[in-house]
Design a protein that fits this description.
The structure holds two protein chains of two kinds. Chain A is mostly helical. Chain A has a single domain, classed as Rossmann fold, CATH 3.40.50.12280. Helices cover 40% and strands 8% of the residues of chain A. A three-stranded parallel beta sheet of chain A has the order 1-2-3. In chain A, helix 5 links the parallel strand 2 and strand 3. Chain A starts with a helix and ends in a 6-residue tail after the last helix. Chain B is an alpha+beta fold. Chain B folds into two domains: 47 residues, no CATH class; 277 residues, Cytochrome-c3 Hydrogenase, chain B (Orthogonal Bundle), CATH 1.10.645. In chain B, 46% of the residues lie in helices and 14% in strands. Chain B has a four-stranded antiparallel beta sheet. In chain B, a hairpin with a 5-residue loop joins strand 1 and strand 2. The radius of gyration of chain B is 23 Å and the shape is globular. Classes of the chains: A mainly alpha, B alpha+beta. At the A-B interface, helix 3 and helix 4 of A face helix 1, helix 4, helix 5 and helix 16 of B.
Chain lengths: 162, 406
Amino acid sequence: MGVEELVASLGDNVLTTTLGKVIGWGRGNSVWPAQFGLACCAIEMIAVATARLDIGRFGSEAMRASPRQADLMIVSGRVSQKMAPILRTVYDQMPEPKWVISMGACASTGGVFNNYALLQGVDKIVPVDVYIPGCPPRPEDLLNALMILQERIKARGIVTQS
Amino acid sequence: MIESPGVTVTRTGEQGAFGGELLTVNFGPHHPSTHGVLRLIVDLDGEQIKRVQPVIGYLHTGIEKQMEALRWQQGVVVTDRHDYLSPPINNLAYALAVEKLMGVEVPPRAQVLRVIMSELTRLSSHLVWMGTSGLELGAMSMLMYCFREREQIMDLNEEISGFRMHTSYIRPGGVFADSTPRFLEMLDKFVREMPGHIDEYEDLLTMNPIWRARTIGIGRLPAEDAKVLGATGPMLRGSGVAWDLRKSMPYSGYEDYDFEVAVSNDCDCYGRYLVRIKEMREAVKILRQALDRLPDGPVNVDDRKMLPPPREELETSMEAVIHHFKLFTEGYTVPAGDAYVAVESGRGENGCYIVSDGTHKPRRVKFRSASFVNLQALERMALNHMVADMIAIIGTADTVLGDVDR
């Protein structure tokens, strides 16, 4: 095969892209959430993993029991003052790059519970990427949040810190 | 003295029966099989459990305190959220307590709708229990099957109340809205199909050798101990005591339904599993009867001081506008006094104690939650078992941490 023929055949067999796009594509399509259920929203989080909604379609069905293997923390429910340091510990144990979805009104703002017991928004202790409204949000809302997060991860590429 | 979380294993210095030293192991609050954020401090002799100390409060939400700041009709919304696997049953306990103080009796159609929602919730609660417990003991497909039916119940919830989980459907004075024809159609289909689905679950678990090996003889709780520890619900009935509030202290017209109390004399995790399976079958039976006898009529008490007037009246009647305005700015008052009402939830006796000082907000609301009391039996059940059986034992207690901590 001559050089000309080789070059001509490249168009059908080779894709050119940037490293950032490849890494972003890989990261975005394999976001593994930590298995970290807190309250009511955790039940809807389980529902997302089951047959009707099937979070596996988005590459996130592998809920990891160990934070060391997780990329995403879904704060599913209300965070009490007593739970806050543990939540932060779990977040710190997750390897970089990592993302946080604040699921539901309680996790995002404290919700109806404006009182002494609850943290008024999980963003006081961990940086949140996507907030989901609802009490609890529909499972579809969680999938939507995951898709928004995926788009962001893919757009950022190699750079993970904002 | 409880050490701060983070210390996972410490030596106690005590000598164990097998020549080793007792170890204190921290279990939770972030652990995949504690059904939420339960933390246990377990003393182990080798692999044998010698002491179990539950540490609770990781989901303390201040729900009881919060209710003191909300008006009587607003409190319903918060009751949904303590035992988040059986919201309508929590609503029912609260609504019955408020109605008891006010001396209100809801119309027959509302009574039947309340029973329908309670039984649907009992089913969905048991389905979540069975799915997650199966998952923890290795039966992964159980979760998929159980949540398949749970989604149908969520659809029913959505059809009748507009919301999937926290329906706030049962309210003091009646229910949120009348059932739609589509709801009754969906429910009829669900009731026809559900017994077949329960057979499916039994095919997967009842004679499954792994399930039996992990549950039979594990977590024994003799009847006397269950009574002394105050256990209720499947925990008590799994120990051979036929105590079901729907039969022994009927409410919402449960005395008119033909159903059996599920009892098992096994006193172990397997017995409690059988009780829950039987309860699901009985719940379907009650749903069928409720569907057949659903009477016509209003679904709310005819009291303009307690419930808002119908929307169409607002356009023609000045009085209706005044009632509407008063109700949504001030709320209604409840006569001074206190009342305790207990209902049977999927977990046991779900009681609500309210104190009123005659104003439009409660003076005190206290929930007697079944999970909190049942959690006491954990040490009795886990004693001298292997640490791996702890998973089965936590699962069988079916605690909802929101219900424990409130």
